[in-house]
Structures are given as structure tokens and as C-alpha cells.
């Protein structure tokens, strides 16, 4: 059995597999090298020779237990025909959302636009170095994708005042997102992804009363779909206040926690395997502090199925040596 499956399916507590959110990214000089020659991020994601190479870069360097495919959650709106660009020092910039246009897209159009992602997964899954590792496919949660598609950029701290103005539009788009996310998930699994993570980066922006409609129900639909395909699903509803309620309702196979979550509290609150938590900023400090902070999580979760990870993506200014250190700390625990 693959390392993440041992924890998620068998509930094995005797070891802690490790992978790192954004492990294929800008803190690696070999990534920056490729990125420099490929200024268009979307095109890079769609170049399956390069995206599979980038996916494998961190695994060549480090003893990680899983590969996460180099792509982006915003490939979904891109596949639906919405303009998506990444501007340096700004982040994603999306074009105007045209409901009429995206209503006419079918699965064939969608797959035609983004199929190199699936080819990259296939290629990675055939790499013998991954025989004993997991391959993580991923999607953005419907809510987080809705935020980007309507807001057309990262919302930072809060949503535009008139975000919920057109409820008809929002609910139509949510249904379209959900439908295409299912295609996207199925294609990733058919090409070799054996775990799916759902990133809900902006779940924390919602008031409690809006969670059922925009987070719980659409995510539950996806979780049930992924379970029906017999693949474990990890949810990462970043910065929500009530992880227990989320787990009770959505019932993912594992829950990824952000660095604001109190690990002792979540241990009491949920029964399912837990992932993540460590503040990525700790990797910018020194070895001693890293050991202390990483050990805190390992100690607290020593009798609970636990996958080591960060509480958010690794920061671009991280020294790769600190990643090496972290992996050794976790493996030698
Ligand atoms: O290694 C991995 O984790 C796999 C690849 C991956 C990327 N994005 C590559 C990427 C994954 C899993 C994502 C998820 C993603 N993308 C999320 C959810 C997680 C989170 O960060 O909250 C979100 C919200 C996005 C949207 C997105 N993509 C933003 C906001 C940005 C700009 C901010 C940033 O970090 O630069 C991106 C760009 C992006 N996606 C980069 C990478 C490696 C940086 C691209 C570059 O400039 O080189």
C-alpha cells in the first residue's frame, strides 16, 4: 500500500508520510530556471513534458512520499473559456465571466483545452521512481473557484461588497463548476492520480450562515463523487472556524489544517486522519526552531493517523536545505 493510503485507509499511526503544499515551485532553483524561460504560467501548466518534469523536481531532491501534479486550480475556469493570466507580483487575473459562453461548453471542449494536464499525470504515474509513492490530483473547491471567477482576482481579505448581488448567476455558475470539476477529477484519476485534494482557500471568507450553501453542500457532492470512484479525498477548507462541523457534514477521508488551527483541539474534535498545520514561516527560521515546531505536531498526533505537511503553501523564499531538514526530522521521529 502507498504511504498516504496506509494513513488514510488503514489508519496506520506508526509513521508519518510527508509531502508539502506547493512542493513544486519557486523555492527550487531548478523550477525558477524553467519558469524564467516560460513566462506564461498557463502555457507552462499545459506543456506536459515540462509540467511532469517540474512535478518530479522535488522528488528528485527529497525523500517525499507523494507527488502533487504541477498545475493550478484556475485551470478549471481556463478550461471553461474564461481568460486566466498570472501577472508577476499580482497573482491571477481573470477575464470577465460570460455565463452564456460557459453554459455552452461541453466536456469535449473542456478536455480539449486542458488535456495536457492528464498527459502529465500519466507520464508521472509511469515514472518508476514513484512506484512506492502517491500521486495527488487536486481541484479548487467550487466556492474558491466561484470567488476567482466572479472576483476576477484574489480577494485578499474580503469579498467585493456586491459579490452576492446576483444570486441566480452565482448558483448557475456553482452548478457548472461542480459539473466540470467532476470531469476534471475523473480524468485525473483515470490517468493515475490516487489521492485527490480539494483546496478551499477562501472558505474562511464566508459568514457561518453561508457555509452550508456555498461550502458544505457543493464540497459534499464532490467528496461523494470521489468516494464513488474508490479514491481517498483530502479537504483543505482554509481558515474556517469550525473544522469539526465541516468534517461531520462533508465527511472527507482526511482533513488538512491551516496553521491557525490548534492541533490539540482538532485532535479532540475529529476522528478522521489529519494532515498539515506547520506554519510555512517556520521554514524561514533555524534548524533548532524547526525541530521544536515540527516535533510539536508529531508529538500531538503520535497516536492519530497523521500526514505531515504545512498549514499553507511553502514560501518562495524558503531555503531548500530547510526542506531537507524538515523531511529528516519527520522521517527520524
Ligand atoms: O506543488 C504544488 O502544490 C502543485 C501545484 C499547485 C499550484 N497551485 C502551482 C502554482 C497547486 C496545488 C496550486 C493550488 C492553488 N492555486 C491554490 C490553492 C492553494 C492556495 O495557495 O491557497 C490557489 C488559491 C491557486 C491560485 C493561484 N495560483 C494563485 C493565487 C497564484 C499566485 C500566488 C503565488 O503563489 O504566486 C498562483 C500561481 C501558482 N500556482 C504558482 C505555482 C507554482 C506560482 C507561479 C509562478 O509565478 O511561478
Commentary on this structure:
With 333 residues, the chain is an alpha/beta fold. The chain has one domain: TIM Barrel. Helices cover 47% and strands 11% of the residues. The chain has helices at 3-8, 29-37, 41-45, 48-61, 75-79, 99-103, 107-125, 142-151, 167-190, 211-228, 243-250, 263-269, 287-300, 320-331; strands spanning 66-68, 84-87, 91-94, 134-140, 195-200, 233-237, 254-257, 274-276, 306-307. The chain has a seven-stranded parallel beta sheet. Helix 11 links the parallel strand 6 and strand 7. Helix 4 packs parallel to helix 7 and helix 13 runs parallel beside helix 14. The protein is globular. The two termini are 21 Å apart. The site of coproporphyrinogen III (CP3) has 22 residues, from strand 3.
Per-chain topology:
Elements: H1 3-8, H2 29-37, H3 41-45, H4 48-61, E1 66-68, H5 75-79, E2 84-87, E3 91-94, H6 99-103, H7 107-125, E4 134-140, H8 142-151, H9 167-190, E5 195-200, H10 211-228, E6 233-237, H11 243-250, E7 254-257, H12 263-269, E8 274-276, H13 287-300, E9 306-307, H14 320-331
Parallel strand pairs: 1-4, 4-5, 5-6, 6-7, 7-8, 8-9
Antiparallel strand pairs: 2-3
Helix pairs in contact: 4-7, 7-9, 8-9, 9-10, 13-14
The structure holds coproporphyrinogen III.
The site of coproporphyrinogen III (CP3) has 22 residues, from strand 3.
Q: Notable features of this structure?
A:
333 residues, single chain, two-stranded antiparallel sheet, 9 strands, alpha/beta, binds coproporphyrinogen III, TIM Barrel, seven-stranded parallel β-sheet
Amino acid at each position: 500500500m502507498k504511504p498516504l493510503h496506509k494513513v488514510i485507509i488503514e489508519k496506520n499511526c506508526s509513521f508519518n508520510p510527508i509531502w508539502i503544499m506547493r512542493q513544486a515551485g519557486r523555492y527550487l532553483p531548478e523550477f525558477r530556471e524553467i519558469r524564467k524561460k516560460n513566462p506564461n504560467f498557463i502555457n507552462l501548466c499545459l506543456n506536459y513534458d515540462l509540467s511532469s518534469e517540474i512535478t518530479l523536481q522535488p522528488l528528485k531532491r527529497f525523500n517525499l512520499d507523494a507527488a502533487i501534479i504541477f498545475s493550478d486550480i484556475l485551470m478549471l475556469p481556463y478550461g471553461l473559456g474564461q481568460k486566466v493570466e498570472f501577472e508577476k507580483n499580482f497573482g491571477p487575473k481573470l477575464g470577465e465571466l460570460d455565463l452564456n459562453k460557459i453554459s455552452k461548453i461541453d466536456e469535449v471542449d473542456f478536455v480539449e483545452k486542458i488535456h495536457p494536464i492528464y498527459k502529465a499525470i500519466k507520464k508521472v504515474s509511469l515514472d518508476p521512481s514513484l512506484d512506492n509513492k502517491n500521486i495527488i490530483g487536486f481541484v479548487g473547491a467550487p466556492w474558491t473557484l466561484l470567488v476567482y471567477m466572479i472576483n476576477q482576482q484574489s480577494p485578499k481579505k474580503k469579498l467585493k461588497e456586491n459579490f452576492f448581488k446576483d444570486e441566480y448567476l452565482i448558483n448557475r455558475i456553482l452548478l457548472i463548476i461542480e459539473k466540470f470539476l467532476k470531469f476534471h477529477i475523473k480524468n485525473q484519476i483515470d490517468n493515475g492520480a490516487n489521492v485527490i485534494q480539494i483546496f478551499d482557500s477562501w472558505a474562511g471568507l464566508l459568514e457561518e450562515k453561508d457555509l452550508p450553501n456555498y461550502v458544505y453542500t457543493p464540497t459534499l457532492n464532490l467528496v461523494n463523487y470521489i468516494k464513488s470512484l474508490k479514491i481517498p479525498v483530502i479537504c483543505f477548507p482554509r481558515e474556517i472556524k469550525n473544522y469539526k462541523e465541516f468534517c461531520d457534514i462533508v465527511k472527507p477521508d482526511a482533513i488538512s489544517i491551516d496553521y491557525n488551527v490548534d492541533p490539540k483541539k482538532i485532535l479532540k474534535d475529529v476522528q478522521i486522519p489529519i494532515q498539515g498545520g506547520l506554519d510555512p514561516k517556520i521554514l524561514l527560521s533555524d534548524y533548532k526552531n524547526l525541530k521544536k515546531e515540527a516535533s510539536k505536531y508529531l508529538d500531538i498526533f503520535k497516536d492519530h493517523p497523521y500526514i505531515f505537511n504545512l498549514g499553507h503553501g511553502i514560501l518562495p523564499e524558503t531555503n531548500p536545505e530547510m526542506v531537507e531538514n524538515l523531511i529528516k526530522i519527520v522521517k527520524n521521529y
